[in-house]
């Protein structure tokens, strides 16, 4: 079997897995949610307030992301906090922001407490990101 045939077989084996992963980014609301919590851990209340999601829709989106293993939860008293559990999500979010927003985000792991002037957070980009095609 040639190297090309082996490569093709390996790609076919991974195609379904890649398609399932990319489905997580397939709705604007889920994309905004992932972009927002990729910046830093957020409580459900913060997400609702900052993105304007209604509780039932937010719960449904978070449950799907949790079930897919993309986000993790942490409970502190009555608050539940969400953060990104899959490093691949951060990579995809950075790529999407660079492609569609023209910027690369300053994430909480990259930015010191006093970010420089002009630095934009993932949360700010999540609120204002435009996902329409530009020519």
* Unreliable residue runs: 108-135
Main sheet makeup: 3 strands, antiparallel
Mean pLDDT: 78
Overall, the morphology is: elongated
Number of strands: 3
Number of separate helices = 6
Explain the overall architecture:
- The protein is mainly alpha-helical.
- Helix content is 56%, strand content 10%.
- It contains six helices and three strands, in the order ααβααββαα.
- It has a three-stranded antiparallel β-sheet.
- A hairpin with a 2-residue loop joins strand 2 and strand 3.
- The radius of gyration is 17 Å and the shape is elongated.
- The N and C termini lie far apart (43 Å).
- Mean pLDDT is 78; it is low at 108-135.
- InterPro entries: ArsR-like_HTH, HTH_ArsR_DNA-bd_dom, Metal_resp_trans_reg, WH-like_DNA-bd_sf, WH_DNA-bd_sf.
- Residues 10-104 form the HTH arsR-type domain.
- This is Metalloregulator ArsR/SmtB family transcription factor.
- Keywords: DNA-binding, Transcription, Transcription regulation.
Secondary structure layout:
Layout: H1 3-23, H2 28-39, E1 42-43, H3 44-51, H4 55-67, E2 71-76, E3 79-84, H5 87-101, H6 122-128
Antiparallel strand pairs: 1-3, 2-3
Describe what is shown at a glance:
With 135 residues, the protein is mostly helical.
Which short descriptors sum up this protein?
135 residues, mainly alpha, Arc Repressor Mutant, subunit A, 3 strands, 56% helix
């Amino acid at each position: 079997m040639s190297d090309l045939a082996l490569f093709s077989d390996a790609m076919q084996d991974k195609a379904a897995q890649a398609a399932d992963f990319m489905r997580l980014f397939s709705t604007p609301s889920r994309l905004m949610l992932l972009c927002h919590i990729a910046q830093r851990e957020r409580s459900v209340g913060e997400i609702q307030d900052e993105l304007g999601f209604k509780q039932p829709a937010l719960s449904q989106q978070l449950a799907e992301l949790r079930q897919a293993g993309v986000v993790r939860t942490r409970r502190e008293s009555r608050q539940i906090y969400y953060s990104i559990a899959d490093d691949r999500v951060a990579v995809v979010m950075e790529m999407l922001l660079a492609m569609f927003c023209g910027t690369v985000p300053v994430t909480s792991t990259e930015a010191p407490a006093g970010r420089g002037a002009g630095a934009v957070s993932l949360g700010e980009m999540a609120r204002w990101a435009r996902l329409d095609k530009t020519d």
